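Sample pair:
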Amino acid sequence: MARWDGIEECVAVAETRSFTRAAERLGSSVANISRQISRLEDRLDVQLFQRTTRSVTLTDDGRIYYNHCRALLDGLVEAEQAIGERLSEPTGRLRITAPLSYGERYIAPLIAEFTMHHPRLEIDLQLTNQRLDLIESGIDMAIRVGVLEDERLVARPLAHRAQFVCASPDYLARFGQPHTLAELKNHSCLLGTLDHWRFTDQGERRDIRVTGRLRCNSGPALRDAALNGLGIVQLPDYYVKEDIQAGRLVTVLDAFAPAEEGVWALYPPNRHLSPKVRACIEWLRRRLKVEYPVSGADQRL
């Protein structure tokens, strides 16, 4: 490509301040270096270097051109490195954090399979509901569900999850089924860590404050309480989907179902995404869609 001719020679002369040392760096001859620089100056119609018997220095135009050419060569090297990393086998230690229940149900089994496919990789998977600081904790990747809060991190979508409001047939037989959001105040709601539930009403998000006699920060415990007829609960699909399919729980207020939440892979903003993190993200994306389809929405990812 003619437009690239002379660029490496220009950068080498600028950085070594010598046609001789530039030729040594590039494994070329002084005559060829001089010829390439002259052709480049003729094409650009500017003088790039001031030449004396003792030194070679950049002109003002040469300094501007050198800065851009240095960036181009750096970008070329980085592009080649990125391709090399992509094709290389993931190795080393990969530290991942994920929410406890979602991690136990979905992430941990997939990570175990991923580990089997990459014998040179060591996995450290931490399941916790604490929002660990990836940068301070030295964690390579986090799985997060819902609204993202840390703008310092790069986010890749993996899947979606849905929220269901449901109760046991026994509870609904005794206390009736709510048909409007306002009717929730007449029911015993099983509370998690929040005092409100999310809904969608005429296309707009609505947060409805709910009350009840039982509060617990455990999804499985709230599910068990709902199965035992203690009240209505709002829980993610992975807690209650099988119970709904089996008829042990019945969904209510379906017309006000909240928008689905994203499941994300987050990682620190590195210049190049490491092969181990890239491979893990792609593995989770593919496997979550095939093995654990939450809803039709994740097919859009």
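Residues 95 and 124 are 5 Å apart (CA to CA).
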